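Progress report, Aim 2. The chain analyzed during this reporting quarter is listed below.
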Amino acid sequence: MMEGQDRVVNSSLFVGDSSPPPEGGGIDWPSNAPTFRLGSDPNLAGAGARYVYAIIPRLAREDFGPIGIADACVHTLGLRDIAAVVHDCPPEPYQGEPATVAAWVKVHNDVIDMAWREAGSVLPMRFNVIVKADDERSAEENVRHWLELEYSNVKAKLDEFRGKVELGVQVLWDPAVVAERIVEASEEARALRVEMATKPRGVAYFIEHKIADMVKTEMERKARRDFADCYQRLKDHSQGTYVNKVRKQDGKAMIANVSLLVAGDRVQEIGAILHEVGEEPGVEVRFTGPWPPYTFASTVGAIGGEAEPSPEALRWDNGG
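Predicted structure tokens for the chain:
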């Protein structure tokens, strides 16, 4: 599988559903995962499962106490020099009212942040990644089995992400302000506006639409230019980028929605670039983070099964 492709996982080791972090990401978990059903072995009923928060470099500390979802005791399952951050749980997804689930997601992310601070690097999981026992292995053995299978890839990513953070960048326009600036900068548009003021209503209507078409065409060109310029400047100061889909915003036009993988000591450089971008009239910059590398962790093989490209794979650029 090519690096950087989003993944859809088919695995009988999982139960539950997925709620993505702010921009999506984390090691993937299928939204169409099968509901848990007990196998033919009655002993599986008491085998339990493991809720997986993240993968980290192995620490001397193995027990983090009752900081997990529903005050579950969080601990690690180690393999060589890496470890999964987990808690013991029933083999069924966490489900409830929206407010309850939102609180669980916050705890999930808080545990990941704690593990990130403690270990210095992290591969975060999506919410509700639960590994269960099967006919061959216990839940704990299945977690360690996956760590063994993916060891080289996981270890390389943990090394790559050490000292790095994820940042989210969105650039938005106020369309009315940007359109007016385009008219003011266009000699032809200004002349048409003057002409329109002297014409009868019917003629003025057609001139107005001609100006609108000119402005629309130029706004599309400007959006492409501004995105390319901003993206290149951000890429030059980053170790990796994801170009996410732009989102509809009330009264705003989003022209860029990018996730960045950045060395921790270069965050201020990114901030300086975005400050310049946001100084342009009609431009708003939203800058979030630092986060654990949720988006970039999706390039790691999915836990518990084979992975295949999603039809909506994001574009990946590793800075090369």
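Residues 1-24, 28-47, 304-320 have pLDDT under 50 and may be disordered. Helices lie at 98-119, 139-149, 151-161, 175-185, 187-196, 201-236, 267-278, 294-297. These observations will guide the mutagenesis work planned for the next reporting period.
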